[in-house]
Specification:
This protein has 15 helices and no strands. With 366 residues, the chain is mainly alpha-helical. Helix 11 crosses helix 15. The chain is globular.
């Protein structure tokens, strides 16, 4: 008796899923930053009248709804790119007003709102990093991706590079399956792609590819190892000194006179950043953590100077990841969205460290 094949429901990661996630992440972060900047510069204007207030959370919900409809209605690839951008903008406008959702008095400026937004962004980054991980090249997944790429034939947009890539992937999985139906499908696809009358077009790099190429040319021409090394040493030292100064001031005030500690915290109380003794304790914890991290960053810079580049860069990367992932949650509570500038600087230095390690250190050891 022939056994009926069982339906397979296992999830398959979409082709270019990491690109769609990145578009959504960038749109999300940019929307929150630009929205806060615009509202502050414009004096927090409101759209409505004495009875109505059309908050930007509504526009965020509308964009999220449109982003959810696009991939449900349209099969075109550009629909996924558009949905990714709209979803990022929509969730940015939505979560920017989280302070109103979690307070009885609809407080847009509620201090924990900024850390909540930042934590939500970090969770999305973790999802992106998980999506970026390569998946196992098993026949079912590869066929999903190849069939999706076949839409390039229908759109008259298949170039020789894409064709060769699909042929290679199909040839690799042909021997991986014993299913005669899949083997027949793979053979048919290979035969179709090898047809001499198949219409091909010249490769047309997209906007992102052109920008990436220009960045690569710039890095290759101007970012040499000595220049980047000096930049890293200077940046790590400056970031370390900057936070150690605050740490030393706090430590000196704490271990000398109580009045000096009160004088140090008084400006924060006047600005509304400290509203209780418990918050003052969290502020001190943040300052201590930043001071320790800054001290380690200076040590990592010194290790790079003395030739221990591998260990120095590894230590600096660990410190910056901890800073971005945990310490900045406290920074956003007290500094609110002014901490964005510091976060961008930390992220830029982290990218420079990973680029230096990949470009100059790994190449040297291979």
């Amino acid at each position: 008796m022939i056994q009926e094949p069982q339906t397979i429901r296992a999830a398959v990661k979409r082709e270019n899923a990491e690109r769609y996630m990145l578009l959504s992440l960038v749109s999300f972060a940019s929307t929150v930053i630009l929205t806060r900047l615009f509202l502050q510069l414009a004096g927090y204007p409101q759209l409505g009248n004495s009875q109505l207030h059309i908050a930007h959370v509504l526009w965020g919900g509308l964009l999220l709804f449109i982003a959810s409809l696009l991939p449900l209605i349209l099969a075109n690839r550009w629909a996924y790119n558009t949905a990714a951008v709209l979803s990022g903008v929509g969730v940015g406008l939505f979560i920017d007003e989280v302070g109103k959702f979690i307070t009885q008095n609809n407080d847009y400026f509620y201090p924990p709102a900024a850390p909540i937004i930042y934590a939500f962004f970090l969770l999305t980054v973790l999802i992106y990093l998980r999506v970026r991980r390569p998946v196992e090249s098993e026949p079912r997944t590869v066929l999903y991706h190849v069939l999706e790429n076949m839409t390039e034939v229908l759109d008259h947009d298949l170039d020789p590079t894409e064709k060769a890539r699909m042929e290679k992937r199909l040839a690799n999985i042909y021997t991986m399956t014993s299913d005669p139906d899949l083997q027949a499908l793979i053979s048919s696809l290979i035969s179709f792609l090898s047809h001499k009358h198949l219409r091909l077009v010249e490769p047309k790099p997209g906007y992102a590819q052109r920008i990436g190429k220009q960045i690569s040319l710039f890095l290759k021409k101007y970012v040499t190892q000595p220049k980047l090394k000096m930049f890293l040493i200077f940046s790590l030292g400056l970031m370390g000194v900057f936070v150690i100064v605050d740490f030393v001031r706090l430590a000196t005030a704490a271990f000398t006179l109580h009045a000096e500690l009160e004088a140090l915290l008084a400006p924060l109380i006047d600005q509304g950043k400290l509203r209780s003794a418990q918050e003052a304790g969290w502020f001190m914890i943040r300052t201590v953590l930043e001071g320790v991290t800054g001290f380690l960053l200076i040590i990592s810079g010194g290790m790079i100077v003395t030739g221990k580049e591998h260990k120095g860069i590894q230590l600096a990367v660990i410190c910056l990841v901890i800073w971005l992932s945990f310490i900045n949650l406290l920074a956003y509570y007290f500094d609110q969205f002014s901490a964005v500038v510091t976060t961008l600087i930390q992220f830029f230095v982290l990218m420079a460290l990973t680029y230096y390690r990949r470009k100059f250190l790994q190449t040297a050891t291979e």
